[in-house]
Amino acid sequence: MKLHGPQARVLGRLYQALLQVFGPQHWWPGETAFEVMVGAVLTQNTNWKNVERAIDNLKEHDLLDPHALHRLDEEKLARLVQPSGFYNVKARRLKALIDWLIETADGDLTRLRRRSLKRLRRELLAVPGIGPETADSILLYALEKPAFVVDAYTRRVLLRHGLIDAGATYAETKALFESSLPREVSLLNEYHALLVELGKRHCQPRPRCRDCPARAVLGEPLR
DNA sequence: GACCAGGCACATC
DNA sequence: GATGTGCATGGT
Questions:
Q1: Is it the case that residue A223 has pLDDT exceeding 90?
Q2: What pLDDT digit, counting tens, does each position of A21-72 carry?
């Protein structure tokens, strides 16, 4: 990876260190692109284990399909995704996303992929319930567009090590990575997944800094 | 029993 | 613009 500027080189070294320690993460854990899309909504502020239960419910009823979910009542959908929490809002958000998918591409993800990243991002953000992180997750992991995903772990890691300040916006944090890294889907995919792994293992609200691979690159956390 | 998890929209100031 | 709150389940 050829990176320009000191900050870019730090992010490059962090990536190499995380990959070395954790290995490839093989994200996103979903069998189809549509499943990834659904998972992106269900995982909003929610533990992935609970999302899996909800997705299993949909699979058991043969409903993990754009047209099938399009036909399903919102109330029934809410009951099925209940284990993922916030089930009423999530059913509403899934419905809105699927409405867009059906209306704009007849439920066909490969048709969506022909559109530009910029256009898709604008369209996704116009869907009620799809914010910047969910949009970028769908772009990167379901539609294979080079969009970096910023999540709570990413911000926490960067904040603790002084690479962003407390007031940094989503867009600023995203730009930090996108301006430094090659715009390759596989790299951005792996990097975000590695940051989540780092977050789960070490960069919790109560830090677990012992054996943290980020320290070798970023130094001691500020707090 | 408190705290946390791969957010977002909306109300209020 | 910033800050607060509702949405809810299941694991530690």
A1: no
A2: 999 999 998 999 999 999 999 999 999 999 999 999 999 999 999 999 999 9
Q: Is the CB of A137 under 7 A from strand B?
A: yes
| A87 CB contact with strand B at below 7 Å | no
Q: How far apart are CA A55 and CA A45, in angstroms?
A: 16
- Cβ A78 vs Cβ A89: under 8 Å: no
List chain A domain ranges. 6-26+149-218, 33-142
The class level of CATH for A6-26+149-218 reads mainly alpha
Spatial separation of the C-alpha atoms in residues A39 and A55, rounded to whole Å: 7
pTM: 0.96
On chain B, which bases lie within 7 A of the protein's CB atoms? 3-10
pLDDT in tens, A132-149: 999 999 999 999 999 999
Residues 149-168 of A with CB under 7 A from strand B: 151-153
Structure tokens at A176: 């930090």
